[in-house]
Amino acid sequence: MVRESSNLLSLKNTDLELFKGSFLHADDLRKALAGCQAVVHVAANTSQWPSGYEHYKKANIDGTRLVLEASKKAGIERFIFVGSANAFGPGSQENPGDESSPFTDLQHQSGYMRSKHEAQQLVLDFHRKHQFPATIVNPTFMLGKYDAKPSSGQMLLMAHGKRLMPCPAGGKNFIHVEDVASGIVSAIENGRNGQCYLLANENLSYREFFGKMQSVCGWPKQLLPLPKPLLNFAGQAGTWYEKLSGNPAKLNAINARLLQADNYYSPAKALSELQLPQTPVETAISDALAWFAEHGYLRK
């Protein structure tokens, strides 16, 4: 299901039946779901700015509620909600977060993370109330082909061709997007109703991640550590700008703190129950860059 205005580059040369409409319109959903057995609900506002919760509520929460209700009416047999690892609290590299890690106060201050956590709770509540066959998968930071927007791959585009790349103190869990796709298919076939599965792979500091990127393509040439006070000051300046201008800033106080956090997660449950593949992050970087180069995203 795609919007009339959707960028369909990622779907080019695929053998798909496309339904054009909006998942925010009940009648479109009714028509799109006719004759379907399973739903994979991927649609969401994933932008990191503006940071206000209201910016995300319509798509991420109200939209999820509409898709759940329409799917129940359509007699859907399997419902997979693609959430976010950010719906769970992260951990350290030695003790990464898992599906039992509580959502944190810092995450709640991010409108995006709060909306994904609340949407997940909506799905779990709907499952319990209606015995609805819903399963949740929670990808971490995805890299690979077909990133037409681009979304996570923007990190690679920012660093490619840079002789000096600013590097914050924190880190993330990274996974190949094709491993996530395999995890979703496995969740349809093997996932337990009412359960969440972190689709995760390698926990890397930003320094470690850019080191892997350097080994793949030679960029960025050199990393410049970003002192925490400097990054915090820049984030606070962005927040002041947002308040004074009413416009979103690409860096604000909350995003600055999140950049410095250890956002590490464990894939143990998905490995055990979904047989989640674990493709090396270097392969994900290489695949993403090759796709970006083929489609003209890389700077000359």
Please, how many helices?
11
Strand fraction equals: 5-15%
* Proportion of helical residues: 40-55%
Mean pLDDT value? 96
Kindly report the CATH topology: Rossmann fold
List unreliable stretches of 5+ residues.
none
Instruction: Let me know the number of strands.
Output: 10
Mind telling me the C-alpha Rg?
19 Å
Oligomer: single chain
**Total count of domains:** 1
End-to-end CA span: 35 Å
In CATH terms, what is the architecture?
Answer: 3-Layer(aba) Sandwich
Q: What is the CATH C level class, in words?
A: Alpha Beta
Shape type: globular
- In the sheet with the most strands, the strands line up as 1-2-3-7
Sheet of most strands: 4 strands, parallel
CATH superfamily: NAD(P)-binding Rossmann-like Domain
Order of helices and strands: HEHEHHEEHEEHEEHEHHEHH
GO molecular function: aldehyde dehydrogenase (NAD+) activity
Domain NAD-dependent epimerase/dehydratase: 12-195
Organism: Sunxiuqinia dokdonensis
Pfam families: Epimerase (PF01370)
Task: Give me the secondary-structure topology.
Layout: H1 26-33, E1 38-41, H2 54-73, E2 78-82, H3 105-108, H4 111-130, E3 134-139, E4 141-143, H5 154-159, E5 164-167, E6 171-176, H6 177-190, E7 196-199, E8 202-205, H7 206-217, E9 222-225, H8 228-245, H9 253-259, E10 262-263, H10 268-274, H11 281-294
Parallel strand pairs: 1-2, 2-3, 3-7, 4-6, 5-9, 6-10
Antiparallel strand pairs: 6-8
Helix pairs in contact: 1-2, 2-4, 7-11, 8-9
